[in-house]
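Methods: example folding runs. The two proteins below were folded one after another, and each record is reproduced exactly as written to the output file, sequence line first and structure-token line second.
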Amino acid sequence: MEQDDREALQAFLDYHRHVKGSSEHTLKAYASDMSKLLLFLQDHGCTLLEMASPDARLYVRYITTEKRYGEATVNRMLSSARSFYSYALRNDLVEVNPFSLISLKKTRSSLPSVLSAAEVAQLLSLSYEDFPSTRNMLLFTLLYDTGCRISEMLGVTEADVSNRERQIRVMGKGKKVRYVFFTERTQQLLDYYLSLKHSLFGHTDRLFCSDSGKQLPQSTVGSIFAKYRQTLGWQKSFTPHVLRHSYATHLLDNGADIRLVQELLGHASISTTQIYTHVSQKRLAKVYASAHPHGRKHND
């Protein structure tokens, strides 16, 4: 990598870390996407700061037809490149943004997967005894109680939890702080979990820890969800985000105001929250089709 390219890319990442307050997940995505672009440019004898619009069009063709990345991945890679060159243009590192005229690929709209109320009850009624099973059950319960992203929940410290108020201080995207709430039943589970955790590992900073007392890694969370999905015999998707989707959908199903749900989820824009109204409308349509005399399908 050319020295100028390396310095420009590092300055871009530093800007998003320290000024924009981007999450580590976002920063890793930027770094990964830009490294792929750099490799492409090196193969074509071009540098990052010399890239022109024809090179950008070649890159789009490369990632879509040769590498055959999915639509969502392509859009993320193009957004990363566009963001970098917007930064470079503002700081007079380049004269044009080569990606300014390249539009994102149209993606098929898909509604988020959600658990039914019965499936949530089935999940949260599973037994727990030892530390790992108690931690897992608390993780499921808090994700459904609060609608937090998994990165937010894994970042929660014991000091962030107010047992008296039954609320948790959460650091969301862009380092925005919000408060989420949990039930009395969850409070009892939390107290039991903390008693096990403290007897095994003493007082550790993070609320959730691994079987060895260290910070619980996100990769382990994926394995935990996969294990319980198999135990429950579910064919549908079961991830931390499915619990977040379920939380939002069930709130709206039960009459919660969409602005309140937006605040609880930590969405910057209400348009992001509105996808859950589509889920609820789809469910209402199914109820209508099965219950209304003119909506039911007849086999005769």
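Second run, written to the same file directly after the first:
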Amino acid sequence: MATDLDGTLLGNTSTVSKENIDAISEGIRSGIAIIAATARSPRSTSKISSISGLGPIAVCANGAVGWDLRTESQIWHDTMDAEPLMDVIQKLRIEVPDIRFAREQLVSFLPEQEFFVREVAGLSFDRPVAQIDHSHVALGVTKLVMKSRSLDQKKLGAILAEINHHNFSITYGSVDWVELLPVGINKSVGLSRAAEHLGIPADRVAAVGDHLNDIEMVSMAKVGAAVENAHEELIRISDVVVPSNALHGVGRFITDICSGSIELLDQ
């Protein structure tokens, strides 16, 4: 079973409740591998997984990274090349003058100045730079995050889609982030790779999330769930709606699977 972190497993104070931790422990005792599938980097995902009891691996960066929590090493890591990425960045700077970028490279998160207007709980990052340039992406990029003060996510995403001639994957994170990922990457791809790595058939997978970047993952799962506070588009395609993140919905989902109220394993 895979769970998103922010807005799903984590409560409104970005912490994991005792109820969720206890349910994860119950699920593991029942023989269920319960892992994180998140937009976060391996660095913060490892910390949250350790506190929560998740593992033994994690899907990070919206599927671009598979992380072994025991050895703190990558299982897979997809990246974007510098030249096509810089082409997108330069075109977006023209189309959206107030755009701000952040570059993620495995465990390094490098934001431009003014990318963050407030502190993000549990997120550590490199010293901000004036502008992301070729020198910052030369070694390949796990994902590129962007935001605009004048445009909402969907409008910025639509502009990005028009100029994305390199077929990078586009998804959404946080409240106002748009994310560019390597070609063909999303959480569904990451979860499929994780299941294969763990020797779990694809038809024995459950997933729960809250946002637009969870749609592919929840859709591919045998049982796909949305927390009650989820984006309406995710709720619409989910098999099950569980209580909100503030009411320990992930814990409820796990408990219902363990009890048989939600049937995951064929009898």
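Comment on the second run: The two ends are 18 Å apart (CA to CA).
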